[in-house]
Protein: D-alanyl-D-alanine endopeptidase
Organism: Mangrovimicrobium sediminis
Amino acid sequence: MLFALACLGLLANTAAASESKFAHLTGNPGLRSASALVMDSEGNVIYGKDVESVRPIASITKLMTAMVVLDAGLPLDEKITITKDDRDLVRLTGSRLDYGATLSRREMLLLALMSSENRAASALGRTYPGGMARFVEAMNDKATALGMQHSHFADPAGLRVENVSTAQDLMRMLHAAEDYALITEATTTQRMDVYPYRNRGYLTYANTNRLLKNEKWDIELSKTGYINEAGRCLVMHAVIDGEEVSIVLLNSFGKLTPFGDSNRLRSWMLAGG
């Protein structure tokens, strides 16, 4: 309940909240991300930096995509086929899912989340009842319901620069995503084999969050994102020294910077600030 209050705008430590071992950290972890927000499970802010700036969020968008798909109760075993409508005409990114590739809705959802597969995300939106326009509308309806007042969604893959949010709003979305077992499963799966073509071998996909391979980290949910305008982004729910912690990092320069920032945060927290 206290976490929910914090996600509604109570972005400060309060005497009423149960204190974690990280509640009174001092100093600066030296993060390179432009915006950052770290909270414990009771709603205490462990660290905050530029939490209200509206920024593009790239593929962090796919967490909203997954929630909207799952909220609709669509059959997860239904087969979905990639078509030309799923091409990325914004960034012109490629994909190993060629036209005609067919997977279940569940597999498309897992690929979109764990490997940030853009065509899989597009196919999920395209096959939503009412089509893509209705899907994007549902994304924004969900954002409103979550109290994400400074967020806007424009496509299911996060390719458009109009997908924007704040660190504060994304903390709300991250908290909501934790309630979906399939999202936590997908975003913490390190590798997955799929068979999208008849009479052909499997394709192996890997998770975009390299911290999942690091034995020092206990990660329960995560999503990465990148387009030029957004920089490198990362949101995570993890356990550090027995404490549940939620992390939002936005607009980092450099491919490895969000992972470096995450490690800097963890070291700062374990050292007591």
Q: What stands out?
A: The longest helix spans residues 131-145. The chain has one domain: 2-270. The radius of gyration is 18 Å.
